[in-house]
Amino acid sequence: MAPHRPELPRREWRQGGLVLLDSTQTPVYFGGDALEILLHPAKALSFDAAARAERLAALKPADESRAYWCVEFLSGRRHYRCRGMRLEIVHRAPNAPVFAMLLERRVDEAVEATRLPAFYRLSPREREAVHALLDGLDGEQMAARLGISPHGVKALLARVMRKMGVTTRSGILGKYVASVRRPEGGRGR
């Protein structure tokens, strides 16, 4: 029987904005943070209609007969999902919206740094080595703190790397840094 591992953080999506397009693919409405998401990293007001149209076209399916679609994309370093749908309007006025695109931001709940050792099933000795690494000690300093040889430190950190699924000491640090960065609301990283 495989050992029990704590459940990974679940992925959530938070609404970021809404875009409505008319039959000529011209946006007739931008709601929420839609412009900022679509045009990042440039300022929304500095983009012309052609740039907006190009970005929106990349989020639409090749087969425009589809009633619903979903596309994931990056805007800067953030992950987004565009859920689009064709609107069925009975009495369509000129320039009435025919497509709606809901933009949602992916939010991964981070594993708290205090729970990482248990999550990766680190032994008490491996935890000590990780804490020494987090304190910025090099191999020789870690060896002195732990009372083992520098080669022992390498072996200990190699086991930690294998358990955490990384290949470098900076990878270990990266897992800890990522675990304490929590997005708040619609801002922050």
Ordered list of secondary-structure elements with their pairings:
Blueprint: E1 11-21, E2 27-32, H1 34-39, H2 49-58, E3 68-75, E4 78-86, E5 99-108, H3 116-119, H4 124-134, H5 139-146, H6 150-164, H7 169-180
Antiparallel strand pairs: 1-2, 1-5, 3-4, 4-5
Helix pairs in contact: 4-6, 5-6, 6-7
Q: What does it look like?
A:
- The protein has helices spanning about 35-40, 50-60, 115-120, 125-135, 140-145, 150-165, 170-180, and strands at about 10-20, 25-30, 70-75, 80-85, 100-110.
- With about 190 residues, the protein is of the alpha+beta class.
- The chain folds into 2 domains: about 10-110, 2-Layer Sandwich (Beta-Lactamase), CATH 3.30.450; about 115-180, Orthogonal Bundle (Arc Repressor Mutant, subunit A), CATH 1.10.10.
- The protein has a 5-stranded antiparallel β-sheet with strand order 2-1-5-4-3.
- Strand 1 (about 10-20) and strand 2 (about 25-30) form a beta hairpin.
- Helix 4 packs across helix 6, helix 5 crosses helix 6 and helix 6 (about 150-165) crosses helix 7.
- The relative contact order is 0.14.
Would you count the extended β strands for me? Answer: 5
Strand line-up of the largest beta sheet: 2-1-5-4-3
CATH architecture descriptor of the largest domain: 2-Layer Sandwich
Structural class: alpha+beta
Proportion of helical residues: 25-40%
When the domains are counted, the total is: 2
- Could you list the spans in which at least 5 consecutive residues all have pLDDT below 50? 1-9, 182-189
Order of helices and strands: EEHHEEEHHHHH
